[in-house]
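Weekly structure sync - notes
Attendees: PM, LS, DV (DV joined late)
Agenda: review two folding runs queued last week.

Item 1: First target. Sequence and structure tokens pasted below for the record.
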Amino acid sequence: MSRFLQLVLDMFDGAPASQAPLRPKPRALHGPHLPSEPLGQVLPKAHYAHPRATRRIQLGNTDVAYAFKRGKRRTIGMAIGPDGLEVSAPRWVSVGEVESALREKSDWIARKLVEMQERQQQLGAARIVWADGVVLPYLGDQLQVVLDSSSALKKNSAQFESAQQGPEPLRQTLRLGLPLNAEPSQIRDAVQAWLMRQAKALFVERLNHFAPQLGVQWQRVSLSSAATRWGSASANGAIRLNWRLIHHKREVIDYVVAHELSHLRVMDHSPRFWETVQSVMPDYDQRRRILKDEPLPPWS
């Protein structure tokens, strides 16, 4: 059954088999010599329902309603996102085989559903309130938005001020030519437009930096607003990068850039692909973990 199974583990629609999730270590509940219980049995009873769920399965104490679809693929795929579990399978695989695969990976599914729920709660607490003085991440640092309708700043313009050095360094500041009573949507749109301009310029710079090292040539770059992918690459040299990468540190941005450029040499996630990434970025795995483990505030 395992030969049908492909777990979707990261933002790039795949990862090498060596990075597949490990099962939790056995947990002794009553003594060192008693057999461990599966994670799905140990966790309290829980219910998870995908908004587009079409099937339901009981995995230990976890009731999971999941979105199921069939398509032109050779393996069973599982992905857990903000909405819950999504499963896709080839047309020739029976429902029984799909459910068998889900039970085989029940520990992983239960753990990832809990982690995703916790992450969504964290994101909800960090939601941006668009008003004068709001602070948001920018290149791994903090950027404070200040509304300024004085004559010194052109209406609807944006002016960046770097942090000042001193005993107590100030935050970086983005001054917007908007009145203090500006609507939240006006503030959000002005900040987004400025961030997207910075992202596009930085992406071009880093693409030009890594392309010669990898021996590839990119043709064009466009910005993406995808909810679950940081980037993509086409065989024709077109690169798409999520503009919200601008919230992350430069070394994390560099990882995504090198990742997508490496696809111009190897268009899959085979060991040869990861060797290509490693050739220009020996610590890529550490940067990749930061990208996965440091959630960004919801943009709304």
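Item 2: Second target, run right after the first with the same settings.
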Amino acid sequence: MGKKVVVTGVPGVGKTTVINGAMERLAAEGIAYEAVNFGTCMFDVACKESLVSDRDEMRKLGKDDQKRLQQAAASEIAAMSADANIIIDTHSSVKTPAGFLAGLPEWVLRELMPDVVVLVETDPDQILMRRLGDESRVRDMEGARTIAGHQEFNRAIAAAYAMYTGCTVKIVGNENFLLERAIDDLVNVLR
């Protein structure tokens, strides 16, 4: 059975960039990982069911639809991780109109049973600037204080994930101009 590492962070923190850099470095060392985006798995199912036309609409779906899509994605990813090292790129929590929704609720954790949960974080002002510069996504406007609160909530959620699964939690800082340091930290977790 392969190693399962969940990598999370608020939108705009750069988690996918850190993941891609770490995977590239590990591949050069002969250590193979497959990266799977949890939201993409959910989105594929939602598109097949004509529930959404773009990813950013998913966070506005009702709780029952969210739960069903999470279950479908977890089953698919668990099957993939049977014999491979896998990185699950996701969010600890999703901000919805009704409040925060756990990105990996109990039924998803039971299916996945990660070895490590990694929180990629940085200064909320940096996240805000990254979001403003990303024209590829349609994101709700939030200030730095709201982003900071979301990161704090994610730490609490990650602690709950660790309590449920027995996994460890690692925080990786992805500060501006220090991407290589963030990649180094993630590589050390993945080795």
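Discussion on item 2: DSSP finds seven helices and seven strands in the chain.
Action: LS to circulate a short write-up before next sync.
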